[in-house]
Structures are given as C-alpha cells and as structure tokens.
C-alpha cells in the first residue's frame, strides 16, 4: 500500500491549493478526485461568471488573468488545470474515496480503485454533489433538473425556474434571453439579497415589465408531464410546462462525514466540528478544507475566503511532525 504524509480527498480549487501547499512544504501527498480536475466547476453553467474578481480566486499568488474583472467558468477551468499541470501535482482523477479508516494512528483511505495509507487526511469534498430536494411528486421526471447547463436547450420552451439565489436568477435571465417563456417560483417574498449586485436590478426590471413571471411566497406542489401545480398566496395555480430547473441549492455529503467520525452540530446548520486555528476535526489528523466547513451554511465559505485553509493545515501538520521529531 502506498504511504503518504497527507492524502487530500477532492480536487476542487481548495483540494488543489492543499496539494500545492503540501508539495511546497516537502510533504508526500496525493489528491484523489472522483471526476475531472475541478469537477464542480466543470458542471457549472457553460456561461457562468464568478462573483469574485480573478485575483480573489488565485492560489498561492499564481496570477489568474481573465478577460473581464470577473472570470468566466472556462477561464477558471483553464487556470486551475494549468496549476495542476505546471506544478506537476499528483492528482488521481475519476477515483472516488469511499471510506477512511483510522487504526493505530494511521489512516487507510479506500477508493473505488486503490487503498492508501496516510498520517493525515484532508477532506475537501465541497457541497455540489447533493441538491436540496423539494420532495414533491414528479421531481424525478426527466424534465426536472437540479443542475443548469446551457440556455439554448430551453429556447421556445415553457420553463419554470425554482429559487431566488444567483444560480436561479442567472438561469432565468439567460433562458429568457434565448427565447424561453420563464416563470420564476420564489419561496420567499423577494429576489435573494445575495444576488450579484449588477444582476439583481436586471431581474427585477424583467419581472416588473412582465417579461418573466415571478410567483412570490409560492411553492411547487407537483410536477406533471405537461404542467406543474403551484401553491400561491391566492390559492393553487396550474401552469403549462415543458421543463423545471430546481435551483434550490446544494448540501455537503453529511453521511460521508459521519462515516469518517466527524461530529456535526445537532441543529439545522449541521456544522462539522473543527478547530479554526488548525482546521483539524475531532478526529486527530483528519482535517477539513474549503466550502465543506460551512455545513448547511453553504454561503459562508467560498474560494475567496477558504483558499487560506491549505496553508493553515500544512502549518498544523508540520507543527505536529516537529513535535514527533522532538519527542
Ligand atoms: C454557481 C456557483 C458560483 C460560484 N461563484 C463563486 C465565486 O464567484 N467566488 C467564490 O469564491 N466562490 C464561488 N462559488 C463557490 C465556490 O466556487 C465553490 O463552492 C468551490 O468550488 C469550492 O471549492 P472546494 O474545493 O471547497 O469544493 P469543490 O469545488 O466542490 O470541490 C470538491 C471536489 O471534491 C470532489 N469529491 C467529492 N466527493 C468525493 C469523493 N468521495 N472522492 C473523491 N472526490 C470527491 C468533487 O468531485 C469536487 O471536485 C460558486 C459556487 C457556485 C455553485
């Protein structure tokens, strides 16, 4: 079995930052990623533009040059891929970690392809794999999706977009501009306050002029083949419908964290337990990095403010190693 100082689970921006930091510090490491490099970003909408400016997405000060101040998905794929290739980072792709077991002070990391041994493990698995489901009849129909890709697909179609945050609003506007008839189903009373400041007026104007029909304080009751049933403050309404984009957010894989022995707060936030000074969890030698740290508070951490986790963790590991050498 191959032995490492540190194994990083997840090859998103923060997992890559951890790999680079480990390499810089002279630690042996491998990144295990279940998809392609930066898998989550790969599945973002094709025209997606980050809310962060490019320098705030940089890793280790390596310049991220984008055409506009705020980079697009394709530019981010290029940037993070170049970090991996230029620095010859050891990343094993399409390799899913299924379990991490600790015995006699060492971890065994078990993937769908291999088993590895490590003194330390970093979990940087993000939250983009599991959508927040609406739990309504018809949610599993092929016309319903929790991921949005390309507006062209929805041209001339009756599209319902569920949600009021950036993903939902971007999708509603883009699809409407490509000729979809868009209805927006919003659970609360307004378009989300976190919607990008340059996009929010756009959607509000489109709603006010009647180009996009918004239903506030409304929930979906049922999705059928050619229509959907919604519950509005004025009572139930049936809308003709071809496709539903349920952009209701995503959540970390809590079952995976629990399997690894990481404790979660027992309120609805499900915050994983870790020491913010080291990022070490309640399991010695097991660390968390990136957006997974926020539990259900998925807006708390993003690339901008979590890229620092990589250096914090490597310093903590080196500090622990120096204690072992001294002893
Ligand atoms: C539409 C959208 C726009 C955003 N815009 C911004 C922005 O402008 N600025 C910003 O700072 N942040 C932004 N974010 C947030 C941020 O981009 C992402 O959350 C970011 O990808 C987080 O990085 P991460 O490395 O922590 O997690 P992720 O990028 O999600 O990486 C986790 C990786 O772990 C892998 N993985 C999961 N489970 C396993 C397993 N069992 N075994 C192996 N691999 C596994 C996944 O495939 C994935 O590649 C945005 C998010 C979304 C959804």
UniProtKB/TrEMBL annotation:
Organism domain of life: Bacteria
InterPro entries: Bdr (IPR023856), FAD/NAD-bd_sf (IPR036188), Ferredoxin-NADP_redctase_2 (IPR050097)
Parts forming coiled coils: none
Keywords of the record: Flavoprotein, Oxidoreductase
NCBIfam families assigned to the protein according to its UniProt record, in alphabetical order: Bthiol_YpdA
Matches recorded under PANTHER family: THIOREDOXIN REDUCTASE 1-RELATED-RELATED (PTHR48105)
Name used for this protein in its record: Thioredoxin reductase (NADPH)
Species classification: Bacteria, Pseudomonadati, Bacteroidota, Flavobacteriia, Flavobacteriales
